[in-house]
Amino acid sequence: MRAPRIVGLGNAVELITGGESIDGRTAVLMGLVSDLVPGERLDAAAVALVRSEAKTKEYLADRQRWHKPVDIDETELGFLGATASAYIQGQTKGHYPAPLAALEVLLGSAGLDADAAGEAEAEAFAGLFGTPINRALINVFFLSDRNKKDTGVAAAVKPREIKSVGIFGAGIMGSGIAAAVVKRELPVTLSDAAPAALAGGVQKILEEVSYNKQTKGSDPRRMLTFAPLVNATTVDAEYKNCDLVIEAVVENPKVKGELYQRIEPLLGDQTILASNTSAISIGRLAEKLKRPDRFCGIHFFNPVRKMPLVEVIRGPKTSNETVATAVAFAKAVGKSPIVVNDGPGFLVNRLLLPYMNEALELILDGVEIKAIESAAKAFGMPMGPITLYDVVGLDTAYYAGQVMHEAFPDRIGESPLLAAMVKAGRLGQKTGTGFFAYKDKKEGRGSPDPALADVVKPLLRGQTRLSEQQVIERLFLPMVLEATRILEEQKVRDPRDVDLGLIYGIGFPPFKGGLLFWADTLGAAKIVEMLQPYQSLGKRYQPTPMLAEMAKSGQMFYAE
Length: 560
Ligand SMILES: NC(=O)c1ccc[n+]([C@@H]2O[C@H](COP(=O)([O-])OP(=O)(O)OC[C@H]3O[C@@H](n4cnc5c(N)ncnc54)[C@H](O)[C@@H]3O)[C@@H](O)[C@H]2O)c1
Hints:
single chain; 2-enoyl-CoA Hydratase, Chain A, domain 1; Rossmann fold; N-(1-d-carboxylethyl)-l-norvaline Dehydrogenase, domain 2; eight-stranded mixed sheet; two-stranded antiparallel sheet; 12 strands; binds nicotinamide-adenine-dinucleotide
């Protein structure tokens, strides 16, 4: 309640409801702090300030001023309320109650003195505390806190220091990873089989690292700091002194294998080799390596700049030191790594695929795309699964689906719809048509396309009408079941890894606390009951042994 009286109501609304941090200079300009001084002058400046205030008695005047109601007229108050609440609704989609409650208190108590306003604040705060959303968000805080402390291995193994990084492949991922590394002031050696791709990759890296958020443009000072750290080369021998080499070439096991055969003999004895593969088994890629213990997956997500998750994939022969080093490296470049044992789809894609696949099944059952999208968004997903297909690209989704179908044919079928979409050349945003039509290939939002019916209609199995809750169950219950299989197979060390992986990897709604946290709020017995009506759909809705056992014993995923 002090902030609006010190920095003005508009500033306070922005600071409190947005929850973003501001830098020292902005804080001084706002009047939020008295002065900005270098750390070494802090004590002296504080003493001088106290002495000066003691003389001028300004602090007494401030106290009086800050105790009074906020100086704002009714019209301004109404305008601020309307714009701020529309903005908050747009940002939170109504899923997070705290910012709106804070706004209400800020506006409602503007006409009161600071004591009465403080009481209103305390009352509103009590109403938010202990709610399911509050508990879920506290869980997310603990998940990320736990992740920060996790070394990735059970044993006390020291990670090796990574002082320089090599990257093969300067495409979307290679250049994104290189930029992340350079931003942390680590040197990068980069090459690509295609000279044009290498040049394009370097340009993208420099654009990203020199970008100044404040001026929204390239910053010559940043360019001078970072550009010398990028070594674009065509000479393999220049990778000799890299402590870590990440391969991000095309998703083809043969191409990757040939590259490893060529470069492994050139690398230092202690150098770690890692692949950014999205789907190829790490065990398979390591087959011909002389040092499979120094090999692992370091799976960044696209776009690297935005996505906080990295999956560190442990192959059958990967050493603890390699895992610990990959984890420490991912953290050093600002990411949140989760260690996953090798297997189809690793963690995030393995959980995403059943959900995506189910969205296609729903279309074939005659459920409207609009209903599928709005149910997923009502659940809290940042975008619906059908839009996600268009963003990822239907060809990419088709190949990922093949991998999952081959691995788990009992529950992931080959979708005739996906095959038909690819055959029709409707590959998503990049081709201008997918499930939606796009006026501009870069445009985010698509619009419904009547021509889609030509592809969908011949494959329709019926005209099912489902409630929003039923669509949510169809989409998310297979994900929960797949998560129990992942736990049964010990692909991750803790259910919390599943939850953090989905929040950071696909934007699973934080206000649900994570997939398994959400499942715990329902309880295993209830989930088994919810699965009942879908048993005719086959194995993908059958309770797994783990879930059935939990339903009997009342055990929870988060039980210590
Ligand atoms: N794009 C994604 O969303 C994404 C996400 C996570 C992981 N991945 C994985 O990252 C890897 C790279 O994907 P991408 O999307 O950056 O692909 P991309 O096509 O943008 O880039 C691949 C680059 O590798 C180069 N290349 C091919 N063979 C080479 C060789 N022998 N030596 C050096 N360079 C070679 C190509 O010229 C190309 O520039 C793949 O394994 C992919 O599965 C991709």
